[in-house]
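Changelog note: in this version the structure field was regenerated for every chain. One regenerated record is shown below for reference.
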Amino acid sequence: MTNMKKSLYVLLVVMMVFLAACGSDSSKGGNDKSNEASNDTKKSEEKSADETGEVQEVTFWHAMTDTHEEWLKKKTDEFNKEHKDIKVKLVGQGNYGDLSQKLLAAAKAKNSPTIAQAYGEWIADYDRNNLVVDLKPMIEGENGFDDKESYDDITEVFRKDNTFGDKVLGLPFNKSTRVLYVNNDYLKKAGLKAPETWEELEAAAEKMTTTVDGKKVVGMGFENGMAHEISMWIKQAGGEFVDEKNNKVLFDSPEGLKALQFINNMLDNGTARMAGEDEYLSGPFTNGDVAMYIGSNAGIPFVEKDAKMDWTTVPLPKGKEAAAPFQGTNITMFASSTEEQQKAAFEYMKYLISKENTIDWAKTTGYLPVRQSALDSEEWQSFVKEHPVHAAGVSQYDGAFIEDRVPDAFAMKEAIGTELDKMLFDDAEPKETLKNMAEKAQAAIDKAKK
């Protein structure tokens, strides 16, 4: 036992003695049976906590806020009450950028949390530095998943996102995909159906770019930070993004150029706009300023809260191929934790993605259930029937893909974003943009490999 653990254990014992003494004093002037029952409860709790030794504290760093954080706190409290020998401590670390930086700093200081939210690309970098734990032995061990909620019940695309060679380095948590948000009132007024192809999307954007009741409406919207979804457009065009095995950029291709030209043409002719200063397009969409936009299905609750028109979500319009990025973070476990903490953390991770909890999480937040049994359940099917805006996301598994996990993918995307923004905001030509994107992205990958 380390000195710190010894100190914590001694402090815990002293507190127990102090509480017992206080209970003894108070019983002199109170109800003896009531105090005896209270002491019996305390002894029972202490016994439960001590059956496998000291209480194992699991620290979970996350980037959840608002409704998402409230759900996480509620479920964590429930878990802690059910597991007297485990204490999960939640630590919010701001947004994902903040979380990433703090995890790197903690790793350098050898002070990592037990578990944390992390994208697949982050986990790949952690693995290259031997920072994370292979969960496979726990998954296959006697305390792994049960038959009803087996590991294989986790949707294949999410298992793939956590598989690195022969290792499993995380479990899926808040997972989402891109969908097309559509203003049905504008569609009906234009005499259109929801677009299913690039050609239909382009035509619908043009027809719905108009003036409605004195309001200027733009047909199509693209979110800021398109570097995080440009792989989607390139794959839909029939191209490849990155060769993950050989860490080589592949998108400087005719398909890559076609994707950039498609986006740029709509921006140039005014039938599409970027989110720009609005930051997210849910606002312009619910205000009626934009007729359609592509965004995460996790944004559904935000649109539901403010929308005053008839709207829905539909699957992504396809180009040559149907391709939908399945994104979001996993929960990974850090190797600096003790074996006892790791076992405790694994119990908590399994709990968060149980069939019951992943359904409740999806219904509450708009994220996707991560289990096939959840998707097939009567509860989820009934929910989707009552809330059809959730149908589009879960209909796209056939075209699902995960982000390529190359060294320092964050730096690669930053490099892509810098060049892409020059086209989106400063009129750079698609061909020049594509060339510069590829060069800068490859340089970022090569630098990370050294």
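Spot check on this record: The chain has 20 helices and 15 strands. Residues 1-50 have pLDDT under 50 and may be disordered.
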